[in-house]
């Protein structure tokens, strides 16, 4: 295995972000701008914000920008609030250290903001070769840009020799786009059956079990 790229929330750390409440708060801002939340029901929150910003900007660029800023402020507030109960999952630090010691390239990508990540895991960047939170990329996973940039910065030439590890089916979706192997971990809210239906190559109890697949340990 040339490289392993990890998701953050639910994969490396435990966080209690209430995405339902977050979504409702953003939908209130949609209402203020005359957009029916139901029209964007099938989108993830960040993608919903992007689509709504595009629609609003067609009528008024300044209003579109204002909506974007206000919505992202809400998202960030929820992310920071969730850090109060956040903790690094057992064995994660040792796993990252071992991967790098054995010259497996390590990346971490997340839809979370950098500030929230650093509250719970302040030394994360010292344990990986590439770290890309949403603040450092325009289009986040599962969009190919997020993983693509990580692979580029890792110097990976063959994505097939890399593994994407995450607790949500969108992590696997992003990995499949790049022709990577994918592993779903059960430390989030996604079930084993959901990972099976999504076509995950591996299903692991937690992220540290990637060591079994790479080193047989």
Biggest sheet, spatial arrangement of strands: 5-4-1-6-7-8
User: Which structural class best describes the helix and strand composition?
Assistant: alpha/beta
**Inertia-based shape:** globular
Number of strands: 8
**Termini gap:** 14 Å
Low-confidence stretches: none
Rg over alpha carbons = 18 Å
- Helical amount among residues, as a percent range? 40-55%
Count of alpha and pi helical runs: 9
Helix and strand element order: EEHHHEHEHEHEHEHEH
Task: Profile the largest sheet.
Answer: 6 strands, parallel
Determine the oligomeric state from the structure.
Answer: single chain
Instruction: Give average pLDDT, whole number.
Output: 95
Strand content: 5-15%
Topology (elements, then pairings):
Blueprint: E1 3-6, E2 13-14, H1 19-32, H2 45-59, H3 61-82, E3 87-88, H4 92-101, E4 105-109, H5 114-120, E5 130-132, H6 144-154, E6 162-166, H7 169-177, E7 181-185, H8 192-198, E8 202-204, H9 210-215
Parallel strand pairs: 1-4, 1-6, 4-5, 6-7, 7-8
Antiparallel strand pairs: 2-3
Helix pairs in contact: 1-3, 2-3
Task: Give a brief outline of the structure.
By secondary structure, the protein is α/β, with parallel strands linked by helices. It has 9 helices and 8 strands. The longest helix is centred in the first third of the chain and has 22 residues, at 61-82.
């Amino acid at each position: 295995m040339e490289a392993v790229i990890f998701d953050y929330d639910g994969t490396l750390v435990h966080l209690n972000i209430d995405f339902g409440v977050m979504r409702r708060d953003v939908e209130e801002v949609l209402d203020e701008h005359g957009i029916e939340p139901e029209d964007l029901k099938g989108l993830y929150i960040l993608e919903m914000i992007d689509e709504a910003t595009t629609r609003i900007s067609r009528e008024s660029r300044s209003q579109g920008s204002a909506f974007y800023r206000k919505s992202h402020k809400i998202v960030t507030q929820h992310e920071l609030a969730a850090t109060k109960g956040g903790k690094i999952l057992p064995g994660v630090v040792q796993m990252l250290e071992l991967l790098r010691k054995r010259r497996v390239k390590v990346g971490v990508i997340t839809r979370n903001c950098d500030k929230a990540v650093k509250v719970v895991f302040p030394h994360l960047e010292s344990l990986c070769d590439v770290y890309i939170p949403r603040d450092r990329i325009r289009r986040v996973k599962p969009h190919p840009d997020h993983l693509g940039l990580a692979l580029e910065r890792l110097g990976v030439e063959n994505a097939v020799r890399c593994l994407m590890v995450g607790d949500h089916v969108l992590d696997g979706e992003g990995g499949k786009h790049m022709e990577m192997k994918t592993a779903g971990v059960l430390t989030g809210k996604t079930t084993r059956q959901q990972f099976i239906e999504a076509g995950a190559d591996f299903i692991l109890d937690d992220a540290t079990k990637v060591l079994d697949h790479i080193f047989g340990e």
